[in-house]
Write a structure and sequence with these properties.
By secondary structure, the chain is α+β, with helices and mostly antiparallel strands. The chain has helices at 2-13, 178-182, 250-263; strands at residues 45-46, 55-58, 62-68, 71-74, 83-84, 89-92, 103-112, 124-128, 138-139, 149-154, 169-176, 196-199, 216-220, 226-234, 245-249. It has a single domain, classed as Beta Barrel (Thrombin, subunit H), CATH 2.40.10. The protein has 3 helices and 15 strands. A 6-stranded antiparallel barrel has the order 10-11-12-15-14-13. The radius of gyration is 16 Å and the shape is globular. Bound molecules: arginine.
């Protein structure tokens, strides 16, 4: 039901063929073979336990990051709106979603970006029933880090049309400037340069994909600490040549996110 709604939203938002562009979260989780030939996200490898301790998997089939110990930053298109909500389970603390030591906490409230209408402003906060004692991921408050090479991670599909992953996968993607991104054809012409940040490998093969939405795109700051610069938002297919991943530009919304988090306490 949610999937259909999101697909409809996507169709409304663009003239692109169904399934080509999608903002729908991933659906049911499938298993990957832990011993198999390095199960790749799109072009990724396994994250090691504890490498990205702030990573969260959300039960509607999205990713997220711990903004505080009891607030998860995710994508607006991953949630249904704002208000009390006890239906979401956040899983954290283990790269293996099926690990018995994974921490699971329910949501209590959701705050979707004010003014979100399916285009841009793709961020939301989820308040948790109790704090999770893991490192948080600080967000970029200036555009200083909106460049370079970014890290991406998630339990989403490992190829376009592929299944959700049991083990957290990671990859690196270079920054793509707004003009180049906007010139990528199709939906990219509608890129909202101030609110969205593009990244991807020109020749394709490495990207986030369905089910990674809401998860962070991040890098190291000048002090060597992780800093979140993006939120997985959309793309035409996954890892296609000349079709970058589009991410919410966190620095643009940093003040709004801080204000919203204050309202959740
Ligand atoms: N909208 C997708 C989701 O809900 C994420 C798509 C990212 N696509 C991409 N090509 N980078 O999971």
């Amino acid at each position: 039901m949610k999937l259909i709604k999101h697909l409809k939203r996507c169709i409304a938002a663009s003239a692109v063929a169904l399934a080509a562009i999608s903002m729908s979260p991933g659906t049911a989780m499938a298993q990957s073979d832990p011993t198999g030939p390095s199960t790749k996200v799109v072009g990724g490898t396994r994250a090691t336990q504890g490498e990205f301790p702030f990573m969260v998997r959300l039960s509607m089939g999205c990713g997220g990051a711990l903004y505080t110990k009891d607030i998860v930053l995710t994508a607006a298109h991953c949630v249904d709106g704002s208000g009390p909500n006890t239906s979401i389970t956040a899983t954290a603390g283990n790269v293996d979603l099926q690990s018995t030591s994974a921490i699971k906490v329910k949501s209590t409230r959701v705050l979707q970006a004010p003014g979100y209408n399916g285009t841009g402003k793709d961020w939301a906060l989820i308040k948790l029933a109790k704090p999770i004692d893991l490192p948080t991921l600080k967000i970029a408050t200036t555009s200083a880090y909106d460049n370079g090479t970014f890290d991406i991670a998630g339990w989403g599909a490992n190829r376009e049309g592929g299944s959700q992953q049991r083990y957290l996968l990671k990859a690196k993607v270079p920054f793509i400037d707004d003009a180049t991104c906007k010139a990528s054809g199709g939906s990219y012409g509608g890129l909202i340069a101030a609110e969205e940040l593009c990244a991807g490998v020109r020749q394709g093969g490495v990207d986030t994909c369905q089910g990674d939405s809401g998860g962070p795109m991040f890098r190291k700051d000048n002090a060597g600490a992780w800093i979140q610069v993006g939120i997985v938002s959309w793309g035409e297919g996954c890892a296609r040549a000349g079709k970058p991943g589009v991410y919410t530009q966190v620095s643009h919304f940093a003040t709004a996110i801080q204000t919203a988090a204050g309202q959740l306490r």
